[in-house]
Amino acid sequence: MKVKYYDPYNINEERLRHKPPHLSDDKWRWLINFWGTLEAKNQFKQLLSQPEGMSYSSPAAFTASASSITSTSVDDIYTQVMGQERHGHVRSYEFGVTPTLIFGHSNIGQSRFTLSAQLENVQEMLRVAEQKFTIATETFEDKLVEIQRKT
Question: Which has the closest alpha carbon to 28: 54, 4, 6, 58?
């Protein structure tokens, strides 16, 4: 998120205009301010620093190692900034936003009601199809009897 929405812009006013869609204005302002602090910069440098006792055979090896360190640590940093995931809450959204508001109902009772209504609809469609089949069969049989009489 930092690479996409923060780093490409040089001043905070530009960064504020390019807010990630899932963040509230307040949280985005807080992140912009945090990423601009010396503490955040030091944390990032510490993550990228070479661990003691490790040597790299090439710049590519260092880059690969740094990438793996940052990709695993980005989740940790995000958790530190945005907080732990909690049941019934959605991180990165305003206070009061619940998974149901974002993802819809997953209530078992609601699902049973929906499935029950769908079953009734399918049963009704089957009854109509059977009636049409019966009528078509009777019509076919009548025409067959009529043809047999003529011959």
Answer: 6
Who's near 78: CB < 8 A, 6+ residues apart?
A: 1
Q: Coil, strand or helix: which one is 55?
A: coil
**Which token pair is 80?**
């530190």
Nearest by Cα to 83 from 69, 9, 10, 75: 75
How far does CA 137 lie from the centroid of its chain? 51
The token pair at 19 is 């807010």
Tokens of 99: 């998974």
Q: What is the pLDDT of residues 77-116, one digit of tens each?
A: 777 776 777 676 676 666 777 777 766 666 555 566 677 7
Cβ proximity of 66 and 48 under 8 Å: yes
Residue 64: is its pLDDT beyond 60? Answer: no
Residue 50, classed as helix, strand or coil, is: coil
